[in-house]
């Protein structure tokens, strides 16, 4: 690859050697140290590549061997510059383009975030924007170490962050909820304090009757058949440690874990207007091509039309050179699909079908979440302006959510409470 670039910069010529002494011509070139490559027989002659310097040394060889040399084609930068030597605007534009590329290479034009699962790219980009890390910032202002510290400080569940610059891209890689953490030697007091701080309870997220409870970590505070209210502790992360006398002398702290199900009632309500707009799409599409530089748009067509109603769809791509050299220039197309709308009314049967279909989808979603339907009292009511589906569902469903544990004090022993005599 490097050799091809060097040859292109220096320039070379494709020649055809005609005559009965072509072999003598090749031997003479070898004797003179003239480099030839790409040798190929063509119709009783030979074609080959030769450097510009070597071509200038051929005259005595041609005369001595009685051959004829014809130039087939010229390659390389010297011939290109000679061909367009009078086109000053072309070279001026090319020079300006190179200058602009060099200038734009000093800025960040794309921020790429990978490894995030629980948060969207947009939310992390918004946070980075609050720290003045955004598209268009100079590379010299990018402090990768500071970006790493800010992200780890803002998001507790992100345990590893890497920030690096490649081309005009700022690449941020994150890791969330990784189980294998570095082993750090801690004292027993530090371990106990950490356990206290991380202890969690499972509390009721709604009012229900407990139908099933299987603790895995923590201690159950309720039993099957108990009526609980929202906020009641179902599983405590603090397990008491008792002595032989049954006195609590300490607590073991856990992040509570359990399978809990309860019976509760869910209110359901949905509605559908009787009057609706029916769209009739026309066989007409208006397209508008555009180029966006930063916040400025250059439109290459227009989507204006005589129709009052239409839908707009757009596609956009950012320009880049190679994989990592992004430019602050995007191009895209906007398409307008005109339509005519007409007011129509649903029949009573159609309203029932629409609301019934939505309700079936709702029940299917509940079943996917592990919800068991016990009783269904949802009914459809039809009025002059809209139809409504209202009622309640009696269900058995997973219950509980994590909450920081309300730490308990260890009871004092009687002998500790007595004063010395």
Plain-language structure description:
The chain is α+β, with helices and mostly antiparallel strands and 421 residues long. It has 4 domains: 2-82, Alpha-Beta Plaits (2-Layer Sandwich); 110-176, Roll (Ubiquitin-like (UB roll)); 199-274 and 346-416, no CATH class; 277-342, no CATH class. The chain has 11 helices and 24 strands. The strands form 6 sheets. Strands 9, 11, 15, 21, 22 and 23 form a 6-stranded antiparallel β-sheet that branches. The protein starts with a helix and ends with a helix.
Descriptive key words:
421 residues, alpha+beta, Alpha-Beta Plaits, Ubiquitin-like (UB roll), 4 domains, 6-stranded antiparallel beta sheet, 5-stranded antiparallel beta sheet, 11 helices, 27% helix, 43% strand, elongated, disordered C terminus
What does the radius of gyration come to? Answer: 39 Å
How many structural domains are formed by the residues? 4
- The outline comes out as elongated
Give the number of helices: 11
Beta percentage is 35-45%
For the termini, the CA-CA separation is: 97 Å
Which residues form runs of ≥5 with pLDDT under 50? 179-183, 414-421
Give the fraction of residues assigned to helices.
25-40%
Mean pLDDT: 85
Look at the helices and sheets and give the structural class: alpha+beta
Largest sheet descriptor = 6 strands, antiparallel
Write the layout of secondary structure elements.
Blueprint: H1 2-10, E1 12-18, H2 22-32, E2 36-42, E3 45-51, H3 52-56, H4 59-65, E4 68-75, H5 77-83, H6 88-104, E5 110-114, H7 121-130, H8 144-154, E6 158-166, E7 169-176, H9 188-198, E8 200-203, E9 208-217, E10 219-220, E11 227-228, E12 233-236, E13 238-242, E14 248-253, E15 257-273, E16 275-281, E17 286-293, E18 296-299, E19 310-321, E20 325-345, H10 348-368, E21 372-376, E22 379-382, E23 386-398, E24 401-404, H11 414-417
Parallel strand pairs: 5-7
Antiparallel strand pairs: 1-3, 1-4, 2-3, 6-7, 8-12, 8-24, 9-11, 9-15, 10-12, 13-14, 15-23, 16-20, 17-18, 17-20, 19-20, 21-23, 22-23
């Amino acid at each position: 690859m490097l050799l091809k670039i060097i040859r292109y910069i220096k320039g070379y010529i494709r020649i055809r050697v005609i005559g009965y002494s072509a072999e003598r011509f090749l031997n003479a070139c070898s004797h003179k140290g003239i480099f030839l490559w790409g040798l190929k027989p063509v119709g009783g002659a030979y074609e080959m590549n030769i450097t510009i310097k070597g071509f200038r040394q051929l005259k005595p060889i041609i005369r001595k061997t009685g051959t004829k040399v014809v130039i087939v084609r010229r390659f390389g930068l010297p011939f290109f510059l000679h061909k367009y030597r009078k086109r000053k605007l072309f070279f001026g534009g090319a020079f300006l383009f190179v200058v602009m590329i060099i200038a734009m290479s000093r800025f960040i034009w794309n921020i790429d975030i990978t490894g995030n699962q629980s948060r969207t790219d947009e939310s992390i980009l918004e946070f980075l924007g609050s720290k003045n890390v955004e598209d268009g910032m100079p590379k010299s202002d990018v402090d990768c170490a500071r970006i790493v510290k800010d992200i780890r400080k803002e998001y507790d569940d992100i345990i590893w962050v890497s920030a690096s610059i490649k081309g005009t891209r700022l690449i941020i890689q994150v890791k969330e909820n990784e189980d294998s953490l570095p082993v750090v030697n801690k004292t027993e007091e530090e371990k106990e304090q950490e356990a206290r701080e991380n202890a969690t309870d499972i509390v009721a997220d709604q009012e229900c009757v407990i139908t099933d409870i299987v603790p895995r970590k923590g201690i159950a505070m309720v039993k099957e058949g108990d009526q609980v209210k929202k906020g009641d502790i179902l599983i405590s992360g603090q397990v008491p440690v008792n002595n032989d006398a049954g006195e609590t002398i300490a607590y073991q702290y856990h992040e509570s874990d359990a399978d809990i199900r309860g019976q509760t009632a869910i209110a359901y309500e949905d509605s559908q207007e009787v009057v609706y707009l029916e769209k009739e799409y026309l066989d007409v599409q208006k397209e508008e091509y555009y180029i966006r530089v930063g916040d400025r748009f250059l439109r290459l067509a227009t989507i204006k039309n005589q129709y009052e109603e239409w839908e707009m769809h757009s596609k956009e791509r950012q320009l880049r050179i190679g994989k990592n050299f992004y430019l602050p220039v995007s191009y895209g197309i906007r398409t307008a699909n005109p339509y005519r709308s007409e007011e129509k009314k649903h029949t009573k049967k159609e309203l029932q079908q629409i609301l019934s279909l939505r309700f079936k989808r709702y029940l299917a979603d509940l079943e996917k979440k592990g919800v068991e339907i016990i009783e269904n009292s949802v009914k459809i009511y039809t009025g002059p302006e809209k139809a409504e589906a209202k009622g309640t569902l009696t269900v058995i469903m997973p219950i509980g959510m994590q909450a920081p544990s309300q730490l308990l004090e260890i009871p004092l022993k009687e002998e500790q409470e007595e004063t010395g005599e």
